[in-house]
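Changelog note: in this version the structure field was regenerated for every chain. One regenerated record is shown below for reference.
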Amino acid sequence: MALELEGTLRQKLAVQSGQSARGAWAKQEFVLEFPDGNYSSQACFTAWGQDKVQELAKYREGDRVKVSFNLKSREYNGRWYNDLQMWKIAPAIPQQTAPAAPSYPAPSVPPAVPQAPSPSLADMPAESGGTDDDLPF
């Protein structure tokens, strides 16, 4: 199962190495802090193999990285242990914001043309007391 997580490299632990029946081995654990809802969480990952340890060495604590990893579990003496095995680490791509709207020069506004004022109540004809209406209906 391949997963990816983006966050801040918080801590790199010491490189561990040794010799086994299959040859030399090396591993390095590191802590990644990542956003989890309103809070941040931390997870400890393992870089297995000399090539992965060298890849991790390119990054410093505080760097934003994107970690690709596999989630593995194993049982030992009736207890289960989880391991987050990194197989790739890369710089995090900054989140892209919406592109800024292009700025255009402000349109030129023609000078205001003087307009006649709106009619007021004083401009209305006075009512005549008769039934002489000039309405056609």
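Spot check on this record: The chain has one helix and six strands. The mean pLDDT is 84.
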